[in-house]
Write a structure and sequence with these properties.
Blueprint (H helix, E strand, L loop, with lengths): L8 E6 L8 E6 L2 E8 L2 E6 L13 E3 L2 E3 L6 E3 L5 E3 L10 E4 L2 E5 L6
Antiparallel strand pairs: 1-10, 2-3, 3-4, 5-6, 6-7, 7-8, 9-10
This protein binds FE2/S2 (inorganic) cluster.
Length: 111
């Protein structure tokens, strides 16, 4: 994390730092945000599993599926919606790509 701008987006990394299929956590404002490169599209979600608050960064990320290591809850890495069990949604953080850098908003989208 380096710079904050007026519109509250924070630069977290270069687009080249996170290859397709990779994910990494960053501190953004008051949150730990998990940034994923899903087939070339960057996504950012709250990094904490809604089940029992384990870090999703410790889990698996295959294709478009993010899986928590603790009890294998799985989430769609494009939408943040849970696959199994259904009915949960990870908080999504707006993301911007500019000048080869990934920027994440300090505040999550409203669900
Ligand atoms: S803490 Fe993530 S599935 Fe239980």
């Amino acid at each position: 994390m380096t710079t904050s701008t007026k519109n509250s987006f924070v630069e977290v990394c270069s687009t080249e730092d996170l290859w397709e299929g990779e994910m990494e956590c960053f501190d953004v404002g008051q949150h730990e945000v998990l940034v994923l490169n899903v087939n070339g599209e960057f996504q950012a979600f709250d990094s904490i599993c809604p089940h029992q608050s384990v870090s999703l960064a410790e889990g698996g990320f295959e294709g478009k599926t993010l899986t928590c290591r603790a009890h294998q809850w799985s989430f769609d890495a494009c939408t943040g919606k849970s696959i199994n069990p259904a009915g949960q949604t990870l908080r999504r953080f707006p993301i911007r790509i500019a000048d080869g850098k990934v920027w994440v908003a300090e505040h999550a989208e409203e669900i």
